[in-house]
Amino acid sequence: MLIDKIRSIPSDQKKPSILVIGDLMIDHYIVGNASRLSPEAPVPIVNVKSESTTLGGAGNVVQNLVALGASVTVAGIIGDDAYGMQLIQILENEGVKTNTIIKDASRPTTIKTRVLVGSHQLVRVDREVTDHISAQLEEELILKLSSIIDSADIIIFSDYNKGLFAAGLTQKLIKVANDHKKKVIIDPKGLNYEKYKGAYLIKPNRKELAEAAKAEKINSITDLQTAAKTIIAQTGTQYLIVTLSEEGMAIITEKTTELLPVKATEVFDVTGAGDTVIATIAYFIAQGFSVNEACELANHAAAIVIRHVGSATTTINEIIKDMEGSKA
After folding, report:
1. What does the alpha-carbon distance between residue 314 and residue 173 come to, in Å, rounded to a whole number?
2. How much is the average pLDDT of 145-158?
3. Which of 44, 137, 158, 303 could join 22 in a cystine, given CB atoms 3.0 to 4.6 angstroms apart?
4. Which secondary structure element, helix H or strand E, spans residue 186, and what is its range?
């Protein structure tokens, strides 16, 4: 049984080493009360009660991996600014290796500021530049990664469409990984999936798959398989894992389709659930589990985190407990 297989992992076994390459950002929350409108404009006045910052984007993938017990190195681009320094400090406090993060003086560190009144999000303010990074920075990143990629058990690309994964650079990074015989798994963004050609596994959600495959809708298994066939032909990926919200998850290869029903009994917030899924899949593949086993476990991990408000992480013990509970 899968639970027994997890429990049989030796406690002294070396932690899987996972390299995350992705769009790094900070999520900034301002929480307050609003009881009156401004005399200057018909907008609420928010009386700030608290502020907090956490990792967003690829950083949430990293935090999920750390919670599972992985040894993580992260690569990406940040601004040469105070928020960039704060981002690195948060990562280093988590025990994450940050020596492959590059500072770009021409852009700010991406920050998403959300103003919340109670549980209601009033407004979101984004500070970002999404232009592709320069050729010089691309070469610097490739050089840094070439020296460490061989020590990774698996590599995640966490694409948030913030300028890192230009088609040329993405293909160069996949080639370096494949030359070192390292599996690349991708959380994709945007419409150009050809840039992911050569990846081992790609994990879009239903909407992302429909848009990338230029499908009008994905309402049935047939629609899903037709769209998946288009992406598999474009990328040559061995596995396409499609998250289907309340319908669970689909594991699709060139010849097979397997549906995993949703495990969640309560849904409070799906924020960051995709990051949890990609992190859990990567972690268990790195531990020697099959893709199907890793997806089954990721399905349980997602069920755990969507019971919480905001981005959340889970642990191996919580996954085991959820599996036991779903059998009861």
Report:
1. 29
2. 94
3. 158
4. strand 184-187
d(CA 183, CA 97): 20
pTM score: 0.91
Looking at residue 264, its pLDDT comes to 52
Q: Is residue 319 part of a domain?
A: no
Task: Considering only CA atoms, give the Rg of the chain.
Answer: 20
Give yes or no: 322 in active site: no
Contact 74, 24 (CB under 8 A): yes
Does 303 fall in a domain? no
Query: Does a structural domain hold residue 204?
Result: no
- Give the integer Cα–Cα distance in Å for 39 and 237: 57
CA separation for the pair 177, 199 (Å, rounded): 9
Is 280 a domain residue?
no
Structure tokens at 125: 């303010």
What is the number of alpha carbons within 13 Å of residue 279 lying toward its C-beta?
33
Phi-psi region of 143 (alpha: psi -120 to 50; beta: other; left: phi over 0): alpha
pLDDT of residue 326: 67
Domain count across the chain: 1
Residue in 27, 104, 275, 322 annotated catalytic: 275
Q: Domain with 88 in it: what CATH number?
A: 3.40.1190.20
* pLDDT tens readout for residues 208-227: 999 999 988 888 899 999 99
The amino acid sitting at 144 is K
Domain containing 172 equals 14-34+45-182
CB 183 within 8 A of CB 221: no
Neighbours of 133 (CB within 10 A): 22
Contact call for residues 192 and 167 (beta carbons, < 8 A): yes
Quote the crossing angle between the two packed helices 167-179 and 135-146, to the nearest 10°: 10
Tell me how many degrees the CA angle 164-169-139 measures, rounded to the nearest 5. Answer: 95
